[in-house]
Amino acid sequence: MYFCEKIEMIKHRIDLFIKKFFQHKNEELPAFLLHKLYHQGGYLPFTRASLGFKLMANIANDIVINNKKSILEFGAGISTIIIARLIKMNNLNATIVTIDESAEWILIVKKLLQDENLEGIVTFIHAPTVKSSEMERSFEYDGNIVNEKLANKKFDLVLIDGPIGWSSKKRYSRVSNIKYFINNLDENFTIFIDDTNRKGERYLVNQLRKQLGLKPNELDATFVSFTKGRTFNYEI
């Protein structure tokens, strides 16, 4: 049994290496498909911290194909604007709640939304991070703020791309997000997780696998999804 598990682990790592090696190639078609959303308004400052085109295309597909209505986003950014543009362009009955630790960054994203008359689609929650009392190397969103703002809300799509988790002392920060949405999921839902090539996010995936009783779907080398309920295929 142990030998079989080792073989599966090696195969998994080889698969991830191949996917990551061809990462830029994998972005070409999604970038083409998303061209209109990225260029219909003002310039969007795309950086290496931004969601990749392929993940963004998967999210857009899921929203449109599976009629997502209530979106929860951990970490504001280009994704917030792209999803808001998509909702407006396709005349969708959907809204976004976005949580971020930086008040300054929220103001920047808000301004970009306001310039395109998209601010009514997005509700921002400013929740500074505090050292977790439950987990080492975790600076989580302030639970007093998040729990109050999310009370009695249900979400059918969750995107996890925050808070900051790239440094060693904040490695498991995104794992702490689970307690903020695990009881706020709609009967049918999709959860998208970015940066799953990192140790903290891999631990997050494993925790969700256990708590949800669902198998993660590896969409690419750096992101996965969980899906519950009858849905049409959104994977690109």
Walkthrough of the structure:
The chain is of the alpha/beta class. The chain has one domain: 3-Layer(aba) Sandwich (Rossmann fold). The chain contains 10 helices and 9 strands. It has helices at 2-21, 23-26, 28-33, 35-39, 53-65, 78-89, 103-115, 143-150, 178-181, 199-212; strands at 70-74, 95-100, 122-126, 129-131, 139-141, 155-160, 185-194, 217-220, 223-228. β4 (129-131) and β5 (139-141) form a beta hairpin. The longest helix is centred in the first third of the chain and has 20 residues, at 2-21. The model has no long low-confidence stretch (mean pLDDT 92).
Secondary-structure map:
Elements: H1 2-21, H2 23-26, H3 28-33, H4 35-39, H5 53-65, E1 70-74, H6 78-89, E2 95-100, H7 103-115, E3 122-126, E4 129-131, E5 139-141, H8 143-150, E6 155-160, H9 178-181, E7 185-194, H10 199-212, E8 217-220, E9 223-228
Parallel strand pairs: 1-2, 1-6, 2-3, 6-7
Antiparallel strand pairs: 4-5, 7-9, 8-9
Overall SS class: alpha/beta
Shape: globular
CATH class: Alpha Beta
Overall number of structural domains = 1
- What name goes with the CATH superfamily? Vaccinia Virus protein VP39
Count of individual beta strands: 9
How many helices in DSSP terms?
10
Strand order of the largest sheet: 3-2-1-6-7-9-8
- Major sheet: 7 strands, mixed
The percentage helix is 40-55%
How much of the residues is beta strand, in percent? 15-25%
CATH architecture: 3-Layer(aba) Sandwich
Mean pLDDT rating: 92
Radius of gyration: 17 Å
Order of secondary-structure elements: HHHHHEHEHEEEHEHEHEE
What is the straight-line distance between the termini?
Answer: 34 Å
Low-pLDDT windows of residues: none
- CATH fold name: Rossmann fold
